[in-house]
TrEMBL record:
InterPro entries for this protein: ACMSD, Amidohydro-rel, Metal_Hydrolase
All copies of domain Amidohydrolase-related, residue ranges: 160-399
Name assigned to this protein: Amidohydrolase
Keyword Transmembrane helix included in the entry's annotation: no
Source organism, top-level taxon: Bacteria
Organism of derivation: Mycobacteroides immunogenum
SUPFAM superfamilies: Metallo-dependent hydrolases
PANTHER family: 2-AMINO-3-CARBOXYLMUCONATE-6-SEMIALDEHYDE DECARBOXYLASE, ISO-OROTATE DECARBOXYLASE (EUROFUNG)
GO terms (BP aspect): secondary metabolic process
GO molecular function, one term: hydrolase activity
Keyword entries, A-Z: Hydrolase, Lyase
Gene Ontology cellular component list: cytoplasm
Length: 414
């Protein structure tokens, strides 16, 4: 594998947006030898690239000619719109690009020598190499905020444009790169068209709903979307994100507070609606994944929903078992793995049957990313359970056809 540039790892006084990925992930490369990572099948189910570095290209794929021209004009005439035209990013959320251990997500500005390979592909390859991954499931970054866009049609158009650009430019350029395709969820018909267009792409593992949104995911207009996903055997994921603008976070004065709460409460809301309105009963074959919310909230949800359901079963007539039992049938990504109290973490693993439901994720290149060794350090897991979480459960969700085990004899696929 050619990651574009060879790096001699040595001490540096500061990590910046220009620091090479292999340098930032130096500890991961040490883990490779210490833990024998090449002997593990590892699927990173949540990582990101910076689509705004190529935003002018994305805008050119907007289907609607009027909105496309609007985007072009913003890029041409508005200062700093080159990376943000038509988007709805909230300024305060950029605090996560500073004041933390890794500023890399602010801009992946490291050197990438000119070649016929898109720079994003090279950067993804570097992360895959450094973390000793077999596959990395890659999502956008600012596009994940589109669910709160004030103009739904623009959000739909941006989603369609990004998907087309990503498939043409990034997705099939390296066999290690996979994705769950984002749905233009403001428009159920456009979501159905997206599913039908991309479901059979070998590198599309499923479809994604960005969790920061005001649309109820249990609304009847989305039932054809879920039915189509179930029919095609494609999982659905809910990817959490931050907001500083809802009734709770608007009272907060620190990004730490917003990050701690809003990444969780959005998925708590969707999960509650999902279960109590009987979506798992209506679509029992639809696999559901909850992404980038950590795990600490799940025991609370299991106990709270069970308690309320037992007292008011008439409010959830479609349910045939306790809410917590539906939760044990769902899947969860590991990042950020809350490890300040391993006794609580083990109890959380027990609540969700983590050896069979948890999917390793790094969330690279965000400031709070987790390396594969985070799973290997958990002494309360057996080797088989660790292997399940690092890659085996991902095969259970996405299928061995789309992510075959390539750990034997050769780490990287292809």
């Amino acid at each position: 594998m050619d990651s574009g540039i060879k790096v001699t790892l040595s001490d540096e006084p500061e990590i910046t947006t220009r620091t090479n990925t292999l340098k930032i992930l130096e500890n991961a490369q040490r883990d490779r030898e210490y833990y024998g990572l090449d002997d593990y099948f590892i699927v990173d189910v949540d990582a990101h690239h910076v689509e705004t570095d190529s935003w002018a290209e994305v805008v050119e794929h907007i289907p609607n000619p009027v909105i496309r021209d609007y985007g072009r004009q913003l890029i041409k005439y508005v200062p700093d719109a080159t990376k943000s035209a038509l988007t709805n990013g909230m300024p305060g959320l950029r605090f996560q690009d500073a004041g933390a251990r890794i500023p890399h997500q602010a801009s992946l500005a490291e050197d990438v020598p000119p070649s016929g390979t898109h720079r994003d592909v090279t950067l993804i390859r570097r992360a895959v190499e450094a973390m000793s991954l077999n596959y990395q499931v890659v999502f956008p970054q600012p596009m994940l905020e589109a669910g709160l866009h004030p103009v739904p049609n623009i959000a739909v158009q941006l989603n369609l444009a990004y998907n087309e650009w990503f498939v043409k430019t990034i997705l099939d350029k390296d066999p290690a790169i996979k994705t769950m395709m984002g749905l233009p969820f403001q428009d159920p018909e456009a979501s159905l068209e997206t599913i039908r267009r991309y479901h059979d792409h070998p590198d599309v593992l499923g479809f994604l709903i960005t969790s920061q949104r005001n649309i109820p995911v249990h609304h009847n207009r989305y039932m054809p979307v879920y039915a189509e996903l179930e029919r095609l055997g494609m999982p659905i994921g809910f990817h959490a994100g931050p907001t500083w603008g809802d009734t709770m976070t608007s009272t907060m004065n620190r990004f730490l507070s917003v990050h701690a709460m809003s990444f969780v409460t959005c998925n708590m809301t969707h999960m509650t609606n999902w279960i109590i309105n009987g979506i798992p009963e209506r679509f029992p074959g639809l696999k559901t994944i909850w992404i980038e919310s950590g795990l600490a909230w799940l025991p609370f949800m299991a106990q709270r929903l069970d308690h309320e359901y037992i007292l008011r079963t008439s409010d959830a007539p479609l349910l045939t078992k306790l809410p917590s039992e539906y939760m044990r049938d769902m899947f969860y990504t590991s990042q950020p793995l809350e490890m300040t109290d391993l006794t609580l973490l083990k109890s959380t693993f027990d609540v969700i049957d983590a050896p069979n439901t948890l999917l390793y994720s790094s969330d690279w290149p965000h400031w709070d990313f987790d390396l594969p060794a985070q799973i290997l350090r958990l002494d309360f897991l057996t080797d088989k359970e660790k292997r399940n979480i690092l890659g085996g459960n991902a095969q259970k969700v996405f299928g061995t056809k789309k992510i075959p085990d390539t750990s034997k004899g050769q780490k990287r696929p292809g």
